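TEACHING EXERCISE
Course module: macromolecular assemblies
Task: Read the component lines below, then compare them to the predicted structure of the full complex.
Student: A.B.
Group: 4
Components provided:
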Amino acid sequence: MTYRVVCAQNQRSPYRPAGNVAQEDAVLSTMQDVPLLISRILTHGSAIHGTSQVTTWTGEGEPHRRSYAEIGARAAQLAHALRDDLGVTGDERVATLMWNNAEHVEAYFAIPSMGAVLHTLNLRLPAEQLVWIVNHAADRVILVNGSLIPLLAPLLPHLKTVEHVVVSGPGDRSALANATARVHEYEELLAGQPVAYDWPELDERAAAAMCYTSGTTGDPKGVVYSHRSIYLHSMQVNMAQSMGLTDEDTSLVVVPQFHVNAWGLPHATFMTGVNMLMPDRFLQPAPLAEMIEGEKPTHAAAVPTIWQGLLAELTAKPRDVSSLTQVTIGGSACPPSLMEAFDQLGMRVCHAWGMTETSPLGTIARPPAGAVGTDAEFAYRLTQGRFPAGVEARLTGPGGERLPWDGESAGELEVRGAWIAFCFSTTAPTPSRCAPPTSSARTAG
Amino acid sequence: MTYRVVCAQNQRSPYRPAGNVAQEDAVLSTMQDVPLLISRILTHGSAIHGTSQVTTWTGEGEPHRRSYAEIGARAAQLAHALRDDLGVTGDERVATLMWNNAEHVEAYFAIPSMGAVLHTLNLRLPAEQLVWIVNHAADRVILVNGSLIPLLAPLLPHLKTVEHVVVSGPGDRSALANATARVHEYEELLAGQPVAYDWPELDERAAAAMCYTSGTTGDPKGVVYSHRSIYLHSMQVNMAQSMGLTDEDTSLVVVPQFHVNAWGLPHATFMTGVNMLMPDRFLQPAPLAEMIEGEKPTHAAAVPTIWQGLLAELTAKPRDVSSLTQVTIGGSACPPSLMEAFDQLGMRVCHAWGMTETSPLGTIARPPAGAVGTDAEFAYRLTQGRFPAGVEARLTGPGGERLPWDGESAGELEVRGAWIAFCFSTTAPTPSRCAPPTSSARTAG
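Instructor-supplied answer key:
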């Protein structure tokens, strides 16, 4: 078969200016302007990788399985319900107070794809911070897992902007009986809705999702991801030098979806058909060991404390965890002894560094070619690794002077890139909430 | 070590409009606007992957080796020479008539990074087409390999816009003695130039590189790649589901740099530190077999005819080619017998489909998880594979109706994506050379 380009369309995106080049007679690119949108990841994943699966642990019997094709259809249904039944319009915020599970993945795609903003709530935060955050973001809807109603119900009287609560999964609903917000069942809301949605062509720089940092100093601070930043970050996660997974892999996503978008894994996996294994609320060492043995993930992403607990569990009660060869650890440094112990189990732990403000992939410690197979390899794996092409960095001293990359100098690390935040959302949503740029992106070490 | 974002800069790119969201009180993303530029790939590759290498075959003795750090310094020198000595400004076109080698890689990065447009000339085209193309693109400078002077010299009197010819590598210069264009030696031009260049922050949609299709019907047609399209394409090539190489790999780039940017490999490899092995003019089966045995590449990219010749060579005179486990084949379908023969040598051939208008990565035939290890796997590998997330496609019938993806329907394939062309450059460079979009991107099968 031969191919021939006959003709073509240029989808002029709204952010393309009238003149995008300096000279009158400048050479124009002939490339299409296709905005990088989360809806494109959804549409691709549910069509091309329709048989890939999200498996959610249920704690009893068979885990729950849902294909990417089904997720795509249900994300469309959720978007219809949010728009047509609950009246969500424009870029209103829809919050989630949920564990890692298939419904949370549906929310991840439906909400930004329709133009609204996904706001993941960190269920580990103190009640007063959660109240502050929901009011600050002006969330209009909260999707909540039934098992988390005991956490949400006492907060509801203080959540001024929340009009709708949508409950998904098992859990006693009675605490919501007197809520002033309208309460809906997730499955009832989706039932009968169309399984396709005409996703809008958005500005790729528009807000797609937001997380608040925990606010160890002062009020929590909002980081707002764009469609563009999430799309580019997903591509980076899928690059061979980063996590480098394919549709032959299954990733055990232990890192919570309310924590920096589960390190970008739900978006990245949907982009390439990597299967997801979701622990829901079963984050204790015993069920984690069980799900690894039973579902045979090839990759996992977690913080070191979770892995420390898993090691104790596997020592006390050995399981077949041989499928799991690659573990991405972030959040804090992995103790060398833990790394060695997992090496012996055949699980290769790889450090990654990032933060809410870096989407989070800042660095990853895949040993460079020169170190592989040498004594230097293990020492390298204990570092935080190297920056990918999308993240630029420099080290500056107290007077703003540039310091050398010599492995010894200590200073402020300044980072820059298309998935790095330039400011916090510290006031109520207004177009001017971000102060004009005055200095470089800085990260203090 | 802990990190803390202190403050941050928003590099407002020139294409960002005053209001990038629909509503007055819309939520803004807090992500940095960092344009996707080829200079970023260059800066990253030469710093983070400074020890990776371009190895160029010389036909005698040791091949020539140059590190990515050296390439970075020399690309800066070339940009200084082009701007300060030859007067290249704005988006003027700088052409190359060169084989695959380290100097051609330097041109690949220096020319677009400084804001000019790299125009690769296909040395297989008939003389009259080359003349037409150079005049159409209004090339101001031509970089030429010494061995290709016999091809260039007779054309020069017809090249109206060419003011400078820069010669690199071995070859008799005497045919250029009477040229009206000024003739320079590449190495003399670079000598003494600064090894750093303050690369401009360009619009990521600006023209970066151009290729002309061979013009089987009518005049040749120009496809103009943008910085954005090349950057995104490079990320895709590096994704595990595509070529998925890392800095432990060496790619034998047989596909010419004058043919669709060598399938994007020079940009993609620099992004992640993959080493390049460049055959220069030694494209015959015997030297290719020699360089595989001697330099031990792990990956190669070529059209089937080259691989057919290599198989005959290896059958006649066996070599150790065991390093080479992954071969990307495109341009035309690989005969099943050839694929089987290479399977037996341990070289796994993978089809990729693309064209000048698709940058070229359109599809790649890595078998889906369900087919791996089954009888269906080989049959799948004979297809052209699946689309990545960045390429959307649909099949339409003669009346414009959408046809099903059933493996049987035949129609026009319409493709869309950020690295897919929307039109050809068919007239002399003017801002209006691309007609307004009227229909979808179509590729006829």
